[in-house]
Structures are given as C-alpha cells and as structure tokens.
C-alpha cells in the first residue's frame, strides 16, 4: 500500500476534546467547514468580501440547525422502526420507502 493510500484511508481517529460529546464536536466542525466553503464560493463568484462574509455566516448557521433537526428526525425514525420490529416482528416494519436521495 502506498503512503498516499495509507494517509487517505488509514487515518487515526480525530483528537477528542475532554467532556465534549462526539455529536456536538461533529456538528461544530461541520458548521465551521460549511462556513469556510460558503465564504470561498461567494467570494469567488462576487469578489466582494462583505457579501462573502454575510452569506458565509448566515447560510451555514441555518444549514447546521437543519442538519441537527435532520439527524434527530432520522434517529427518531430509527427508534420507531426498532420498536415496531420488537412489537410485531421484522415483517411489520418492512414498509416500502421511496428514496429520492442518498440513504
């Protein structure tokens, strides 16, 4: 295996901050990454740092809140599915679902 492949696919686990739950840390780093990307894209399109800063600060905050709500909804759906399987067996929870996106 090449050094590049090892670096890409066998990276060590990220450092954890003591007392900070993994989910919170994941959400914060996602928000920071999103903010930097949003600012870069808006600046590249407009060459206006004020517009980039405005969009880069507002849009990722809204997206991060939406991400948290999305994760909670999927968690709740998973718990409901597990409860239905325990109650009625696996056949009761096997309801066809139409997917219009990833996963």
Tags for this model:
extended, 0% strand, mainly alpha
Q: What is the secondary structure topology, with strand pairs?
A:
Elements: H1 3-9, H2 22-46, H3 49-88, H4 90-93
> Which sheet architecture does the biggest sheet show?
none
Number of helices: 4
Shape: extended
- How widely separated are the two ends? 30 Å
Return the average pLDDT rounded to an integer.
81
Structural class by sheet pairing and helices? mainly alpha
How many E strands? 0
Please state the CA-atom Rg, rounded to the nearest Å: 20 Å
Contiguous runs where pLDDT drops below 50 for at least 5 residues:
none
- Secondary-structure element order, N to C: HHHH
> What share of residues is helical?
over 70%
- Beta percentage is under 5%
Structure description:
The chain is 74% helix and 0% strand. It has helices at 3-9, 22-46, 49-88, 90-93. The protein has a domain at 21-91. The protein has 103 residues and is mostly helical. The chain is extended and about 60 Å long. Helix 2 (22-46) packs antiparallel against helix 3.
Sum this structure up briefly.
With 103 residues, the protein is mostly helical. It has 4 helices and no strands.
């Amino acid at each position: 295996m090449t050094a590049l492949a090892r670096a890409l696919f066998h990276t060590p686990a990220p450092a954890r901050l003591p007392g900070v739950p993994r989910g919170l840390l994941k959400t914060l780093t996602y928000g920071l990454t999103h903010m930097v990307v949003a600012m870069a894209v808006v600046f590249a399109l407009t060459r206006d740092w004020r517009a980039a800063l405005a969009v880069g600060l507002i849009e990722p905050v809204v997206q991060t809140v939406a991400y948290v709500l999305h994760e909670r909804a999927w968690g709740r759906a998973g718990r409901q599915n597990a409860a239905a399987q325990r109650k009625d067996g696996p056949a009761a929870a096997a309801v066809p679902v139409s997917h219009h996106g990833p996963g």
